Amino acid sequence: MKIPFATVHASSPGGLAARVGKFVLPNRKPIQTPHYITITSRGAVPHISPDIVRNSTSIGSLYVGLEDFLDKAPQSLPVLQIPQSHPHESRLRKFIAAQDDDVLILGARRAQPVITPQSNTADAVAVITSAGSWVLEHTKWLDMIHKLRPDVVIGFADLAYGHTPGVKRREKMVDRTHAYTRDATRYLYSESTDTSDNGSELKTPLYFAPILPLENTQQGLYLEDLEDELRPRVSGLALYESASLAIIPDSLSDLPRFCISEPWVPQEILRDVALGADLFTIPFIGDLSNGGIALDFIFTPSATPEQQNEKRTPSAPKPLAFDLWNKSYSTDIVPISEGCQCYACQKHHRAYIHHLLSAKEMLAWSLLQIHNHHVMDQFFEAVRQSITNDTFEADVASFEREYESAFPKQTGQGPRIRGYSSYVSGAGEAKRNAPAYGRLNDAIEKYAESQQSSVATPDTNAEGLERHGFAEKSADL
Ligand SMILES: [Zn+2]
């Protein structure tokens, strides 16, 4: 099968090196790599409506977790009821109102999966839907891929979340994942037709095979099979930790490497890029927007290695972001980041966003999402430029000197958490939302006092209401 990925520039030959590439699917926006894939919640970019995504952001690729949609029995799932106008049309694309040229990547679980109370079984993965926990069988998953038709499928993997798996469990993880990859690629590409494209449309989703977050030796047989028998049917690799970048065999180095991990800071992303990562999911973009925190860093590529030496190191590292809940911004009428070309910075100022946050007005999160995604777009563009200039290593060192190594702590309250996000996996875990009705406790006390006073309370009877002068009780009753 044709691999939709080409390396444009690599800082050195072989696998473990930063590289600039192009991921191009027919009729879709090309993705220049390294880059990030935007995380969605139920198919939507959180806080941004599709028209704003189209007009005010550069978002062109979406990661969708199937578990977001599994809140009913499979036969009555709304996403599967969407009519197709031709057999290759994507029901998922129609359902989430994604643009025709957005790259749609579907995984069984969300980019930040919640730990499930159930364990995975021999032929199913435990998931958490908005209606509770569930197990998704591999055969059902394959059927849904067939019906939903995303552009790229992240293969089923038996992953252990929330604990370190023992030796026996690790063996099972590899055996099951190996079997899933074999069965899925057989199912998807069983027909001998050209599965990649006919020049205009992708007929079958491309398959990204998972690499388990285990050591090389533990998944040796699986990796060998990926290099050999499975190789023609695999179009990319999905990785769950940075260490996996080091165990990818050389013969698979022409496949795009998609890290579905949770980097904490941009410095961590840079380290993964240096190891050859091409695509990322970056949960901190949305998490910081929810926390009222605006990204404020710039990666600066040097034009030449000589120019690199001239870069000055600041006396104290600068913060990577700042907290717009802070009262000091209440009268600050400059853009979020000076010189930022995003819609939020062009049209509004810090004081306005501080006000929106204080008022719990959801426009605050929309504007922060636009800005934070834009900062990451600029970051990756500069990273690609730096690799092309062959100054990446020095530019990373300079970035690490220039900025603090952690984001500021969230101080303000984000939007109220709903559905699966509010799921508490352990008995000792605190509730995710602060009680919203705490301040009504005073009112309850007042109501109690009013039993003897002249104020009527909701729990009174007809006599009580009459006594308080609301209405007269009818004699007929
Ligand atoms: Zn901005």
List keywords for this structure.
477 residues, alpha/beta, TIM Barrel, 2 domains, eight-stranded parallel β-barrel, three-stranded antiparallel sheet, binds zinc ion, metal-binding, QTRTD1
Write up what this structure looks like:
The protein has helices at residues 50-56, 91-95, 138-148, 167-188, 220-227, 266-274, 283-290, 305-310, 343-347, 350-358, 363-388, 392-402, 441-450, 462-467; strands at 5-10, 19-23, 31-33, 35-39, 61-65, 103-107, 124-129, 132-137, 152-154, 206-211, 236-239, 257-259, 279-281, 293-295, 321-323. Helices cover 30% and strands 14% of the residues. The N and C termini lie far apart (82 Å). It folds into two domains: 1-282, Queuine tRNA-ribosyltransferase-like (TIM Barrel), CATH 3.20.20; 293-411, no CATH class. It is built from 14 helices and 15 strands. The strands form four sheets. An eight-stranded parallel beta barrel has the order 4-5-6-9-10-11-12-13. A three-stranded antiparallel beta sheet has the order 1-2-3. Residues 192-199 have low confidence and may be disordered. It is globular. Bound molecules: zinc ion. The site of zinc ion (ZN) has 8 residues, from helix 9 and helix 11. InterPro entries: QTRTD1 (IPR028592), Queuine_tRNA-ribosyltrfase (IPR050852), TGT-like_sf (IPR036511), tRNA_ribo_trans-like (IPR002616).
